[in-house]
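Take our chain:
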Amino acid sequence: MAEKVTLVGGGLSGGLLSVFLARRGYEVHVFERRPDMRQGNYLGGRSINLALSTRGIRGLEKAGIDKDILDIAIPMTGRMMHDREGNLAYQPYGKDGQAIYSISRGALNIRLLQLADAFPNIHMYFDHKCTFCDPETGITRYTDANGNAVEDKADIVIGTDGAFSAVRDSFMTSRFNYSQTYEAHGYKELEITPGANGDFRIQKNSLHIWPRSSFMMIALPNPGGNFTCTLFMPWEGENSFASLSTPESVLTFFKKEFGDTIDMMPGLIDDFFGNPTGNLATMRCYPWVKHKAALLGDSAHAIIPFYGQGMNCCFEDCIVLDELIAEHNGNWPTALDHYQKSRKPNADAIANLAIQNFVEMRDLVGTAAFRHRKHVEHDLTELYPDLFKSQYELTTFHTTPYRYALEMGAKNDRLLNYIIDGKLEEKLADRSFMEPLIQQMLTD
């Protein structure tokens, strides 16, 4: 058994994985480039609230903090669409009782660090920026807050240091496949403030979407009565971040496109020009393992945030690696090889699903045809729960592989097209007709 494991990165993945490893008896050293956010150093302004769902909750269950986190999370049972006139249309995410949970990234990260701090065999170092990693020797080097050089040597090094991973950079010497694809859109964090009595100004238990074809805004609730909003827009063009260069242009744009929010966003101008504009990128690479080093979470598979699965996927990485370490009795080379081979196809699948869902959220959810399609899909899930599960349900409320959800989504689309194009909606409740049709079209 490896005695010492170094995690480069103390974010969500690093925090959860450190707990799993400590419970298995490893000496775990966590190096984080940011200050200790438990000391009040967490900076917002460029975040998208997390949508915690079944895969992520399972990881928190294994860590024993699922109830603590769900107590400060807000269930969202569906999407609430807002058109330009302020009319609302609601689409449930799944069956009655199924929900995803809005949670602050900072609040979750702080709770994971607090949990990790309770283990005597977890050692955390903040303000340590990784500057070097040698996968062959397990040596990593850092610069601390005072500019001093710090060297560490471990039996295993795991890069949990996010999309712009220093550990991943060390893999790029030979026979390493890597791609980085940026969307033409960026994002900016804004805020809908609480009402006068701290109440929610819009429906609390929904993920709100203002779909406008080439751009959109979303809003996720927080326990304080406010909503974290994220505006997604092209970088260039007519309706873009480049076109909104003055307070007057921002106000004019919001009054036209998001008029029902103006009175709820008193800090709009300050937020718009004070908060940074973030990039949206998909990063894929392979292999994830090189000698004594491995990649996990966003360092291995950064995805765009439009299926709400980035953090959930990272937590599932932690679960899979933890289970493989146990299955192979601490044989790290074997466990890591099985880990990368099992997770890579699923990481690619959820990346593709996120790209698909970006188009759906931005361009389709507000259309009558899409709402009708979702209504038919929802009826099928309710009438034939043992035969038909939506792609969203498989991805969000189950732990079946992402790859399976992607494949079944294509089959589901074929079935929905057949029903809608053939105007067969009146036969949805006819079991003698629908059951054979579902079985045939979903198993071919």
Summary: The chain has a mean pLDDT of 94.
